[in-house]
Fold this protein.
Amino acid sequence: MDSEPLTHFLIVGSTGTGKTNDSKLIAYEAASRGFSVIVFDPKGEYEDVARAVACFRDAYVLGFEDEPRFYWNPLQCPSFVNPTTWAKTFSDVLVRSYGLGEPSRRILYDSIYRLYVRHGVFEGSDVFPTLRELELEVSRFRARSRSENDSRVALCNRLHIVGSGLTGDCLCIPRGYRIEDFEGRFVVIRLDSIPSVRDQRFIVELFLAMLWERQKALLRLGKQVKRFLIVLEEAHRYVPEERSSIFRGERTVIELAVAEGRSCGLLFVVVDQMLSLLSRYVVANCGVKVVHRLESWVDIGVAMRVLGVVGSDLSSVERIYSMRTGEALVSFPGFSSGLSRVDCFVMRKFVANNCDEVNRGLKSRRDFIREELERRISLRVSFLPRRPSTAPVRTGNAPLHGMRRQS
């Protein structure tokens, strides 16, 4: 990874075929090579990797229900980014995430702009408005037509739902975590306590928009950017192929970040079990494609097109359908033999920029993970427990507290 250009990873497969273990290995390897790693975890499956990474660098597991919690203000303008730019980006993401009408975009932007002026954001204030303040400001908007009034009511309802409950407590604070708080760290953001897929999509896309805008601003200023690895589990929740007709043809922030983020130091690992529901734009921009066993004929057909296999090749269909757990078809640039039946052992060799051992043969995925972690950090790791024995604690607005590097 140090010498080669960044390449996005696409990992697909049915439940239990080993795709999450592949992404864990890539995330672990990236952390050991200096990447800042952010994992969006909708199932709570990455705490074990965070515990392993904590032996050689700072690692944290943040959630919206249990401590330590993900205290983050979406209206907090990223460093080096113009507040007007962020107001527009926030408006675009919220309207698209919830499928709101076009007048909602202007109402939202005007309301955020007024709040920024009131809080002195344009003068450099570090205290930002919250979602609850935004809901109140939107409710005061004077609609000039029936469509504007309907959009205003819909916006108020949506902002009220997002800003309520435990999720709202995490998002409605004047100052929360900033992107620079995640630099040089391994952070897992758990989304399993958020029942609404639309809320998950809004949070993930907006956070990545904040990261992407800040990386672009740093490049424009000639500053050095940190390299980030972003893991998107169940990616079709955040970048689905199907979308509302009014947004059809409009690219989301995540799609644009996948297409253009490499120049900004962003590397994506896209993990999904329903390939047919995932954005084709994201699939096309992933250089490394790992296909585990698929059981849906629709997904198999999409996988064959992704891998460049002729549709009439029945042997390839049989391979995709009959692979054992831990086996995968892998296609990546610069590998002359095309498709190969390999496992995570070969995947790790590719990540380490060493593809000479492709024909080493298959090896048990879990045995390899244990051996590799024990060899690198002298720590015995079990991938069965989902929660750490002692929960990290965070209090107030103190810096991130979590699993720290052991001395």
Notes: The CA atoms of residues 100 and 154 lie 8 Å apart.
